[in-house]
Amino acid sequence: MTELLTGALIADGTGTPLRPADVLIDDHRITAVEPPGTLPEHHPRRDLTGLVLAPGFIDVHSHADNAPLLTDHDTTKILQGVTTEVVGNCGFSLAPRTTTHADVHDAFLQRLFPPLNTTWTGFAELFHATDIAGHVTNHCPLIGHGTLRVAATGMTDAAPDADALHRMRAMLEEGMTAGAFGLSSGLIYPPALFATTDELTALAEVLGGNGLYATHMRDEGDHLLDAIDEALRIGHVAGRTHLSHLKATHPRNWGRMPDALDRILQAREAGHVVHQDVYPYTASSTTLTSVLPTDYLGGDSEHTLAKLTAPTAHAELTAAIGETTHFDRILIATTPSHRHEGRTLADIAESRSTDPITALIDLLVTEELRVAMIHFSMHEDDLEIALRDTRTMIGSDGLPPGNGGRPHPRMTGTFPRVLGRYVRERGVLELPEAIRRMTSLPAETFRIPDRGLIAPGKVADLVAFDADTVVDVGDYQDAMRPPAGIPWVCLAGKTVVEDGGFLGSRAGTRLTPEA
């Protein structure tokens, strides 16, 4: 199909000023970008007057690995103008899965994902299943260290022996051969939190000095700089380091973002290839079990539940986390029963005439650990400082679709929020630079082929938005409302969003990295 796009101002992804231009699409690629009125007019036309035309946005930190396997279409990203998602983050990927630890694998993934009908073992089989099911957006999969570790050793705090580490390396190699984009880790989640730097470095070696290591670091608060240093050591062996959702958490660490960025800059000046992403909110979202001490997490779900139901649990947790945890800043997002969603732990405790530790234990036990939370733990100043850094990209970090509940509004609002709040309202970024951070910079960093720019020869993944009205609409009580001001999106030259509504076509694909 050939289509001529006219009337728009072009944000081409390079960061250069907006300019009027006509764009010609032939089949699935851009074939010409020329001054208005200079291209032949016999082609079918789409009038985008009053809109900005940009490359489709790239969400560098997504957890929508399971989206192709859902019966319903996951439209949370495509309606934001996101056409490509990097999945498999924080050490969670859907493969590999071994017979020996199959049940543990399923329980491990169900702490984050809705129940899956798992039919695969390795990545080639997983990719075959998702490719057949179809993609609403393009997917760029990473290999999760946590899933590798579960496949080799189960849910244990013990270090993998030489044979287990060999199996982990072999499974990582299989995934890379099948088309994965790199290795991810989530070092606050069991069993990955028990991994040593040496274990992670041994896996990074498989990437041959030319691969990508993306990490949810071991610490984002008191030991933030030490965690950055560890990530850089591992990533330098892999080839490139990506720091996921960079932040400084807890009030006592607010104001430390300049120190973190200085440490990253020093690494760049020393020859490290390192980038980072943020999401444009001061609340995070993760599993509620992440507030527990590590000795509660050193085994499978039964181990954790046994610790929580022991007579000593209340006293132990009070001593370990009672003084440092702000229960009024922990909002329950999603539970299997959907009880208490949209309420803080402090509010739940008050309504029961009990204390927050008791409420925490009861919630985790009755919901069998499958509780997602929203944690108000960051400061706006740190976020804006991180946004200004020229190497910062944008990632939604939205929870997997299909869980229901009241998820974090970043699931539906991340990219329009950058454009509305941090470009138009607060002036933290100029519009062309914001578009670069969402398009060409992630395409270059993750080696995503033929995306990220409006230029002849590139795949026609495009979004048109109204710079004066684009805005996120969802909030912490009703996150699933789609954004406003994004009327048109196309994938590989095929219109998939018209007048702000999804047309029902899974036109995306699983991508493989550039050599």
TrEMBL record:
<dbReference type="InterPro" id="IPR032466">
    <property type="entry name" value="Metal_Hydrolase"/>
</dbReference>
<feature type="domain" description="Amidohydrolase 3">
    <location>
        <begin position="47"/>
        <end position="496"/>
    </location>
</feature>
<dbReference type="InterPro" id="IPR023100">
    <property type="entry name" value="D-aminoacylase_insert_dom_sf"/>
</dbReference>
<dbReference type="InterPro" id="IPR013108">
    <property type="entry name" value="Amidohydro_3"/>
</dbReference>
<dbReference type="Pfam" id="PF07969">
    <property type="entry name" value="Amidohydro_3"/>
</dbReference>
<dbReference type="InterPro" id="IPR011059">
    <property type="entry name" value="Metal-dep_hydrolase_composite"/>
</dbReference>
<protein>
    <submittedName>
        <fullName>D-aminoacylase</fullName>
    </submittedName>
</protein>
<dbReference type="InterPro" id="IPR050378">
    <property type="entry name" value="Metallo-dep_Hydrolases_sf"/>
</dbReference>
